[in-house]
């Protein structure tokens, strides 16, 4: 919160008197010996890592010591300034510099304990210990005996426990700040009433939830000018009292539970006679009002705004953000303009439910320096009058529905430093005039609009920004030349900007200062040998070629996926000259790399996300991967890895996502997965050659939300203990990554993501991964019945058991899994009727019971009748949506004794099936048999396939990066490779996938075909 300068504050007189009392260096009075000894005892109990108190030496004049100020007439110690108020690092500093400054700041904190020897400083009036670290100790009781104190600041010093009530004995106290510690007050703030001289009170983030008299007590302080009670768990004071804060200039009640605060502040408390005690006449001195995040609800919002803002004539700062206020933004601005038009300096109404258009009246607040309206539903254009706000330094309208284009008048805001218009619907062309006078602009954020900016190549911008974010702007095809003049740039995002050219050489000169660079989703070409950026680089989804570029050693986040980088991984990962010791995320999936995964992961101890999917990588999973103890997400999907999963992976105890799908891994599913990897949320072993049974230890992973073991050779029964998978057993959505996901989102990086099969299709889940719960055991050799215990997984959203040998009846309680969106039990051996409870599955949008032995009537419900008959084919069911009608008693018509004509038809039909199968077998073996028995033919066949595969590999790798529907391809793989289990077809698998995918692209998606051709030819406008 910004400080407010108020001339009427009495405590400023204290500061002035304090300055006068400082020894100016010419005084000859020495400090009192007893007081010097008291200070030395005080120092003895302190922890001083940075040696701040090195001048505190025996025999020296204590009035010359750091932080000690004496009365230059009497020599008594008057003030102790041992806080760090001016030493906090600048949050806008470059990250590398900030790290260093923060380390110095932390080491500069004093710790230890506070010695009672301070009581001997009888004349001490000023005690400043803020921003230190006293390790959770309680505030010393003896401080309440230091009767001469006028100023006491213990904020941000890591004190804990109850607030000592004897602080109320400090009757001379003008300034008391105990904020931002871990303090609590049991029952009452009555002790504050003794501080009759108090002008400044800050108890922010103390737990005052039980102190219901806070309003009564603070109202009795006649000189109180500033009251800070943010984040104090305050509730509404139940007693209707008359409140009269006549001297109050700053009121901060942010982040509380005060749903009735608007009533108290703006219209007073209603008495039994319905009279109104209007506060407005008593708050005419109010200059700052902070009600951020107080949880305002319902009708009271109508009371707050706009009517009762009209009389706050001295208001300089108003913060009502994060409250869900529902009103027209124009009426609020009109009301504020009636009285505080010439005084208002800061207005924060962010993250409410404001609607309507911004009025032209906005341009008349000539002293407005800070304006935040982000996170609302404001529509219409930004008014041209915005250019009249000559004092404006900060403008934030992020996340609204603003349209039209940016007004050229923005270019007149010569004091503007921060401009954020991200995530709106702005469109049109931007010219150089929009920036003509923005000489002080430091932060320019305008991503996710539909704006076009193509200035003259010789244009030199008047600003020197630290951050520029223009994601989804139309900037290309040329690289923005004006960026070369941004010498202070530390953050740049020009992703999705239609740039299709080689990165110019001058860019690498300015990129050495960049901490965050995002050039993803363009069509940038050429080779890159070196990445000099300091923290984050995202070059994904471009056309870069050549070997992987080597970054500097302290890079943390690197995204190079979906490019055309080639070669092996060894030089990048195992190069001893480049030790990426700080790297946290490495995403290089979907390139043209080849060879084996190197076995040199011992030095990657900081890595938390590793994505090496969608390559032609071969060999076994290296054992050294198990040395990355910090890994959270490991993705090796869709490579050609074989062999067993190494047991060393059991050391990855922090892993959240483990994806080894679509490889050729063998062996059994290891029991140590359930014993050791207890933080798993996603376990994807789909499309491998795992055998044996599902170990019961899997059931111990309480956090597991996605279990995909489909398309393997797993046998045995479905474990009954699946009911212990508690993350799937509750309808409450489980937050899968906690603080780690929040950290990635905070720095605008992609969160942890997974590619999952759900509802019959494969999709990527990132931000919504925490909302997904899946069990997929399809296309295995599972036997037995569905355990009824499975029905207890009430939070499951997708269940796929298709393509097994499961028998028995479908359990009735499956219908109790009410949030199911996808259910596939097809191609098993279930019999009996469809459970009537299935009519409760109201969220189903993918459903398949085909090819079982089910009988009877399909239960009537809105959902079950919405699926076509193919969801039920291959059974003996009746009723809609199938064509068979049920008999009067609701049973299926007799299918075995239906008359001679029917029998003849079925006989002919069965013979038709037999002839088709025989024809297929004869034709198939006519081609395949020679390959089995004639060795030279077989070798020639495989050699030819290998040549074809080499030629098609690069082409196929690129096609795989293009998103198209894969249902036809998956069907082919299912029929030919998985269901027939014919090893002779394995080498043809990729060939058929390529052929079929090319057919889909050329016949149904010609635009996709053009993209492929353009990607390999390097030509532009290949469409025609």
Automatic annotation (TrEMBL):
Domain (Disease resistance R13L4/SHOC-2-like LRR) ranges: 278-496
SMART domains with a match to the protein in the record: LRR_SD22, LRR_TYP
Assigned keywords, A-Z: Cell membrane, Glycoprotein, Leucine-rich repeat, Membrane, Receptor, Repeat, Signal, Transmembrane, Transmembrane helix
Residues in the signal sequence: 1-25
Residue spans crossing the bilayer: 911-934
One Pfam family here: LRR_8
GO annotations of cellular component type: plasma membrane
Leucine-rich repeat-containing N-terminal plant-type domain location: 33-71
Source organism, top-level taxon: Eukaryota
Topology of the protein relative to the lipid bilayer: Single-pass type I membrane protein
InterPro entries for the chain: Leu-rich_rpt (IPR001611), Leu-rich_rpt_typical-subtyp (IPR003591), LRR_dom_sf (IPR032675), LRR_N_plant-typ (IPR013210), LRR_R13L4/SHOC2-like (IPR055414), RLP23-like (IPR046956)
Coiled coil start-end: none
UniProt-annotated location(s): Cell membrane
Sequence similarity: Belongs to the RLP family.
Name of the featured protein: Leucine-rich repeat receptor protein kinase EMS1-like
Organism: Durio zibethinus (Durian)
């Amino acid at each position: 919160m910004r400080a407010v300068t108020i001339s009427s504050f009495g405590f400023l007189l204290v500061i002035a008197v304090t300055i006068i009392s400082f020894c100016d260096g010419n005084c000859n009075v020495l400090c009192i010996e007893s007081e010097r000894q008291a200070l030395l005892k005080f120092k003895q109990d302190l922890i001083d890592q940075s040696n701040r108190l090195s001048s505190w030496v025996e025999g020296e004049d204590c009035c010359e010591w750091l932080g000690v100020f004496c009365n230059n007439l009497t020599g008594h110690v008057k003030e102790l300034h041992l806080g760090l108020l001016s030493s906090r690092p600048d949050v806008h500093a470059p990250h590398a510099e900030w790290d260093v400054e923060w380390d110095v700041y932390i080491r500069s904190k004093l710790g230890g304990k506070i010695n009672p020897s301070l009581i001997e400083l009888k004349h001490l009036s000023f005690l400043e210990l803020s921003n230190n670290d006293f390790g959770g100790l309680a505030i010393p009781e003896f401080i309440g005996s230091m009767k001469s104190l006028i100023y006491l600041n213990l904020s941000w010093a890591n004190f804990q426990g109850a607030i000592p009530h004897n602080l109320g004995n400090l009757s001379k106290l003008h300034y008391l700040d105990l904020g931002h510690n871990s303090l609590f007050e049991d029952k009452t703030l009555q002790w504050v009433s003794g501080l009759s001289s108090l002008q400044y009170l800050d108890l922010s983030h103390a737990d005052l939830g039980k102190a219901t008299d806070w309003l009564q007590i603070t109202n009795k302080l006649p000189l109180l000018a500033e009251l800070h009670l943010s984040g104090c768990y305050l509730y509404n004071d139940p007693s209707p009292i008359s409140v009269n804060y006549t001297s109050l200039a700053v009121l901060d009640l942010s982040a509380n539970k005060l749903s009735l605060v608007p009533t108290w502040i703006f219209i007073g408390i209603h008495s039994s006679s319905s009279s109104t005690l209007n506060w407005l006449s008593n708050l005419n001195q109010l200059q700052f009002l902070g009600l951020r995040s107080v949880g305002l609800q319902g009708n009271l919002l109508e009371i707050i705004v706009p009517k009762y803002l009209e009389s706050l004539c001295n208001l300089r700062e108003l913060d009502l953000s994060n409250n869900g206020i529902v009103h027209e933004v124009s009426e609020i601005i009109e009301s504020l303009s009636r009285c505080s038009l010439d005084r208002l300096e800061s207005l924060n109404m962010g993250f409410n439910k404001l609607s309507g258009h911004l009025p032209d009246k906005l341009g008349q607040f000539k002293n407005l320096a800070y304006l935040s309206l982000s996170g609302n539903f404001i529509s219409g254009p930004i008014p041209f009058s915005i250019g009249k706000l000559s004092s404006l330094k900060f403008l934030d309208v992020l996340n609204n529905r603003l349209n039209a284009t940016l007004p050229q008048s923005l270019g007149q805001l010569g004091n503007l430093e921060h401009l954020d218009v991200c995530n709106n619907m702005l469109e049109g062309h931007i010219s150089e005039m929009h920036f003509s006078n923005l000489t002080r602009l430091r932060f320019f954020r305008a991503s996710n609009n539909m704006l076009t900016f193509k200035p003259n190549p010789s244009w030199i911008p008047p600003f020197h920004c630290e951050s520029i974010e223009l994601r989804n702007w139309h900037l290309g095809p040329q690289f923005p030349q004006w960026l070369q003049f941004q010498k202070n740039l530390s953050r740049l995002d020009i992703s999705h900007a239609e740039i299709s050219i080689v990165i110019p050489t001058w860019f690498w000169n300015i990129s050495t200062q960049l901490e965050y660079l995002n050039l993803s989703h363009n069509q940038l070409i050429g080779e890159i040998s070196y990445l000099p950026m300091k923290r984050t680089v995202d070059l994904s989804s471009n056309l870069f070629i050549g070997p992987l570029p080597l970054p500097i050693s302290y890079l943390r986040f690197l995204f190079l996926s979906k490019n055309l980088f080639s070669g092996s991984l060894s030089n990048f990962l195992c190069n001893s000259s480049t030790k990426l010791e700080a790297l946290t995320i490495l995403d290089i999936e979907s390139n043209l790399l080849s060879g084996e995964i190197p076995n040199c992961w011992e030095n990657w101890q900081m890595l938390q996300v590793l994505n090496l999917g969608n390559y032609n990588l071969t060999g076994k999973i290296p054992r050294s991967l198990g040395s990355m103890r910090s890994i959270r997400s490991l993705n090796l999907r869709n490579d050609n890895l074989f062999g067993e999963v190494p047991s060393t992976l059991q050391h990855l105890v922090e892993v959240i996502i483990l994806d080894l799908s679509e490889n050729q891994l063998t062996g059994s599913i290891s029991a140590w997965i359930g014993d050791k990897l207890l933080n798993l949320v996603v376990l994807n072993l789909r499309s491998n050659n795992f055998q044996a049974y599902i170990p019961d230890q899997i059931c111990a992973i309480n956090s597991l939300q996605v279990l995909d073991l489909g398309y393997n050779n797993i046998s045995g029964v479905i474990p009954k203990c699946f009911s212990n998978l508690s993350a799937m057993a509750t309808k409450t959505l489980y937050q899968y990554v906690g603080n780690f996901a929040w950290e990635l989102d905070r720095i605008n990086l992609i969160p942890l993501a997974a590619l999952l099969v759900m509802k019959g299709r494969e999709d990527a889940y990132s931000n919504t991964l925490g909302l997904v719960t899946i069990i997929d055991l399809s296309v295995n050799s599972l036997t037995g019945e569905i355990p009824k215990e499975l029905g207890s997984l009430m939070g499951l959203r997708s269940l796929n058991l298709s393509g097994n040998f499961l028998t028995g009846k479908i359990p009735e309680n499956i219908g109790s899994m009410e949030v199911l969106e996808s259910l596939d039990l097809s191609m098993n051996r279930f019999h009996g009727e469809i459970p009537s409870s299935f009519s409760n599955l109201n969220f189903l949008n993918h459903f398949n019971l085909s090819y079982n032995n089910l009988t009877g009537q399909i239960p009537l419900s809105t959902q079950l009748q919405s699926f076509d008959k193919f969801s039920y084919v291959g059974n003996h069911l009746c009723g809609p949506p199938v064509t068979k009608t049920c008999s009067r008693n609701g049973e299926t018509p007799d299918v075995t004794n239906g008359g001679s004509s029917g029998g003849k038809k079925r006989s002919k039909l069965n013979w038709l099936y037999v002839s088709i199968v025989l024809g297929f077998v004869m034709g198939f073996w006519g081609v395949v048999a020679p390959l089995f028995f004639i060795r030279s033919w077989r070798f020639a066949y495989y050699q030819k396939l290998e040549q074809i595969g080499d030629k098609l590999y690069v082409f196929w790798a690129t096609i795989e990066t293009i998103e198209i529907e894969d249902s036809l391809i998956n069907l082919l793989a299912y029929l030919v490779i998985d269901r027939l289990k014919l090893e002779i077809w394995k080498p043809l698998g990729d060939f058929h996938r390529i052929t079929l995918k090319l057919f889909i692209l050329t016949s149904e998606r010609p635009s996709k075909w053009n993209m492929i051709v353009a990607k390999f030819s390097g030509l532009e406008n290949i469409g025609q």
